[in-house]
Amino acid sequence: MSLTPKENNIPLSKFESMLKTNNVYFFDSIEFEEIIHYYLDSGKNSLAKKAIKLGLDQHPKSVLLKLLQAELLIFDDEIKKATTLLKELQAIEPTNDEVYVQQANLCSKKDDHNGAINLLKIALLYTDDEADILSLLGMEYLFLDNFDQARKNFAKCLEFDLEDYSSLYNVVYCFDMQNKHQEAVEYLNLYIDKDPYSEVAWHQLGRQYFILENFNEAARAFDYAVLIDEYFVGAYLEKAKTLEKLNRFEEAIENYKKTIELDDPTSFVFLRIGECYEKLNKTNLTIQYYKKAVHEDPLLDKGWIAIANVYVKKRNYRKALSYINKAIEIDEQNHVYWRKYAEISLNLDLFEEAVNAFQQCIKLQDKDLVIWLGLSDTLSFLGDYEDAFKNLLKAKTYFKDFAEIEYRLSALCFKFKNHKKGAAHLKAALAIDFEYKNILKELFPDVFKMQEVKDIISSFKKIS
């Protein structure tokens, strides 16, 4: 039932006046129903209960009021009372569709969705409003992850009302959950044939084309959506994302900015605009919009890391360090941020900080070879050869027969005066990748100059 606002609702005003004065006024059952619906829709269940009690005092045989009473009992988890009341009502009015709807509601609350479906199918036999029952059936099938049946019921709702956008969204949702995006495109195109001016349908069609990576068709669909409704913020946003995929960054920026004109700005939009400017190599504007993003949402770690990356590209590592610190403060469990922190620290000769960053990466299960090598090389540079060696041995458990590890183990063994193991690791490294031997010259020039090392390399070259 559609309800009038409180100030224009005479029965409601009269009812509230009665509550304040303790006078008793008479209302017909329809007026009570309207009053109860108003309180239920407003979330004022205690007042709805008062209205039901007074209503049943005046109209003790009203099935409508008893159905509303059952609805509240179900809401309050008074299952036994609700069950008994609904059985009584079914006996009185066995063809009342609302009785079966409330019984279905009861089953659904107990997670008996098949039971709810059976009851709703009975309700469908007696109802004058099939669309409402079909929508409820669709929801019950969704609870069972039966997307085919759910979709069929929501699609039937659209046969009664083409502008039932809630059902349209649910149809598309079912296609999405089954990854049937091409089928969704076909359905939406048929829908648009019936209602070519539905901005919602064009928007949903654009989304499906985007998922299928048909970005030209997606952009076209979003164009129609905003032509039909020039205030459709969601369509401008999706259109902007699509234009990014087409490398049309200037146009993407225009559409992102349109969303800011129409609605409150968001950190996401500022971030996207910044990324577009970055693709256009407009560094000042890039930084400007990234800073707007973190101003809008200071906890947006993606914004802080984005600014850090820009300053890394500019080789302004001091500034980059301050921004990467912000990102890590927000999410210290993100190994990507620790990687960037290590890179920045190395460029600032902050070697101990770099060691800590590499160790954090490993703790966070980022066990890429680059991390192990970065850690061991930094430890070696600091003269902490034992820890560098231990780190490489751990790395070897994940990466067997890698020249990058064998050359470093060889160099460290020679530094430890363990020439036998050094020679063994060097020969293993040369066998894996002879050309990579220059890493010794780069990282361990003193070892590379050793005559024994030169002889091994030379003899290996002759054999190969």
How is this structure best described in words?
By secondary structure, the protein is mainly alpha-helical. Among the domains are: 180-263, Serine Threonine Protein Phosphatase 5, Tetratricopeptide repeat, CATH 1.25.40; 264-362, Tetratricopeptide repeat domain (Serine Threonine Protein Phosphatase 5, Tetratricopeptide repeat); 367-464, Tetratricopeptide repeat domain (Serine Threonine Protein Phosphatase 5, Tetratricopeptide repeat, Alpha Horseshoe). 77% of the residues lie in helices and 0% in strands. It is built from 28 helices and no strands. The protein is elongated and about 110 Å long. The chain starts with 9 loop residues before the first helix and ends with a helix.
Give descriptors for this structure.
464 residues; single chain; Serine Threonine Protein Phosphatase 5, Tetratricopeptide repeat; elongated; mainly alpha; disordered N terminus
Uncertain spans, ≥5 residues at pLDDT below 50? 1-7
**CATH superfamily of the domain at 264-362, called what?**
Tetratricopeptide repeat domain
Total strands: 0
Query: How far is the first residue's CA from the last residue's CA?
Result: 89 Å
Q: So what's the CATH class of the domain at 264-362?
A: Mainly Alpha
Secondary structure layout:
Layout lengths: L9 H12 L7 H13 L3 H14 L4 H13 L3 H14 L4 H13 L3 H14 L3 H14 L3 H14 L4 H13 L3 H14 L4 H13 L3 H14 L4 H13 L3 H14 L4 H13 L3 H14 L4 H13 L3 H14 L4 H13 L3 H13 L5 H13 L3 H14 L4 H13 L3 H14 L5 H6 L1 H4 L2 H13 L1
Helix pairs in contact: 2-3, 3-4, 4-5, 4-6, 5-6, 6-7, 7-8, 8-9, 9-10, 10-11, 11-12, 12-13, 12-14, 13-14, 14-15, 15-16, 16-17, 16-18, 17-18, 18-19, 19-20, 20-21, 21-22, 22-23, 23-24, 24-25, 25-28
